[in-house]
Structure formats: structure tokens, C-alpha cells
Hints:
Blueprint: H1 3-8, E1 13-18, H2 26-45, E2 49-54, H3 58-68, E3 76-79, H4 83-86, E4 92-95, E5 111-115, H5 127-134, E6 138-140, H6 144-147
Parallel strand pairs: 1-2, 1-5, 2-3, 4-5, 4-6
Amino acid sequence: MDVVARFADPNALRVAVDVSYEQDSARARRSVAKQLCECVGVAHREDALAMTYCAFQGDIAHEAREFFFSDGWRSVRTESRAVEDAFDPSSVVYLSPDATDVLDDVRSDKVYVIGGIVDLATRGIPTSLTRATSARLETRRLPIREHRPDQTH
Length: 153
């Protein structure tokens, strides 16, 4: 299924990756670009997944083009605008391990945002929550603590 059909499907799971974060090294930028490339493979296999990479520009876009041939990615959309500009903010649910509220329902009229960040240098800092809150976006966390209390976020 092509990307246009995916986004036209009212039942598709809409996921966005926010790649607006500053990465602290070339290695971190390359890691994010590689993870985006791996997500392209998932999106290619899953017809019910409509995935967008937001704020796809600058160093991350360069790494993705240079090393992972992102100009040929056909299973995802790339968007230079920020999440809150690319989508209606009232439809966005920003996933953050530091959010208070738990994601307990997945709806096809929402866009679920994942922060595209290598978090080794920011461990313990509520980076994605701060980003989402500053953009006045709804936040939720996955119910990992409830189902796997032995796991960290």
C-alpha cells in the first residue's frame, strides 16, 4: 500500500516521530537516522501504519540522506514542520515516559508522537514531556509501570 492510501485510511494507526531534538554528537545523530530507517521497514510491512517524521531537516535529514538513502523512503512521510504545525494540536498525543496520565486507549483520530532522541545524555531529564508541554500538547505514557513494574522507562 502506498503512503497516500495509508493516510487516507480512517482506521490507520497514525504515528509521528519528532526529530526536532538537538543531538549531542554525530554518533547520536547517526543513531537517530538509523532508527528512522528501521522504522521505514516496519511501516513498509504494516499497511495499517501511517508514519510521519516531523521536523525532518538539518543534521538528522542529512544523516538519513547520506547514509540511509531517505530520498527513497516511500512508506513514510517526511515533514519539515514541527509536530504542532504538521497536525491539528488537538489530535496529538505526545508519548513521554514522564507523563502523569497513562495511555489506555488508542484511537484512529489521534496522532501518537514519539520523541526521536538518543537519551543517554539526558537520562533522568523529562525531555519529551518538556517539549510537549511547551507546545501545549496532550501527553500520555505507556502503561509500563502498571504491567512491568520491574522495568525502567
